[in-house]
Amino acid sequence: MSTYKKVLVAIDLTEEAPQVLNKAKSIAESQAAELLLVHVVEPVGYAYGGDIPMDLSELQDQLDKAAHDQLGQYGEQYGVAKDNQIVTVGRPESEIHRLVKEQGVDLVIVGSHGRKGFQLLLGSTANGVLHGTECDVLAVRIH
């Protein structure tokens, strides 16, 4: 009997994503688990603190489309069905916590850069996901 039935792998869309995806695919296959591929697009307004009085919706749409395209490529490459490729907008930790509940996920896999010192104090997405989710979380060390 497998321990995990539904595995959510949250990736950023950098060249480091395959490191996390390879590990996630291997774990999902070994557990005969369903694999969900997730990317969270942060709202453009966050980056600018909402102080700039301009319409950022076109830029947000471009980021959203680029994320869907890239996630689709990863989905195809790693054999993840379209229905299991999720692009959502918001704060990564909050969106991952929401998806864990909505989708009945029992393992979240995220990449971690293994920050030290000051960066560690500021926290990371991996840390934010760990503190607040009700299922297991695996942080894959990115080299």
From TrEMBL:
Keywords, sorted A to Z: Cytoplasm
Protein name per UniProt: Universal stress protein
Family designation: Belongs to the universal stress protein A family.
Species for this entry: Marinobacter vinifirmus
UniProt cross-references to InterPro entries, sorted A to Z: Rossmann-like_a/b/a_fold, Universal_stress_UspA, UspA
Domain called UspA: residue spans: 4-141
Subunit annotation: Homodimer.
Database matches in Pfam families: Usp
